[in-house]
Amino acid sequence: MTEGQKTLIMNLRKEGYGYVRIAQRLEISENTVKSFCRRNKVAGKVDVTRTILPPVKGGKHFCLYCGEEVEQNPGRKEKKFCSDKCRNRWWNSHLDRVDRRANYEFVCLHCKKHFTAYGNANRKYCSHECYIANRFGGGTDD
Prior knowledge:
- The protein is of the alpha+beta class.
- The chain has five helices and five strands.
- The strands form two sheets. A three-stranded antiparallel sheet has the order 1-2-3, with no helix packed on it.
- A hairpin with a 6-residue loop joins strand 2 and strand 3.
- The radius of gyration is 24 Å and the shape is flat.
- The chain starts with a helix and ends in a 6-residue tail after the last helix.
């Protein structure tokens, strides 16, 4: 990789271009661009409103939820929570920061009501009751 390519990669990343676009523009491998950026800590633009930074005091990191000290592993991604329990509780109390992109709209096969579901593109019924009613004829034990 030439010095000109390295400079161009750094400039394009700062403008917000992704690895694939940069690789296509320079006609080099995407993995080459990615490796260069990671080795040289070249980051793209970051949406500051979605960034969650854990509190750091005196070089020590603390859990976003409970405030306990979080031990960091060198060479690994920075930990923001001390446990899965704290991570789940924090996200459940900050639902406004969840980026939900997998919302699907359906019409229930039983009651014909419109409904939306998150994360499942194959739903057929709006509720368990409609499923039982449609599948087993009303759900009553005869």
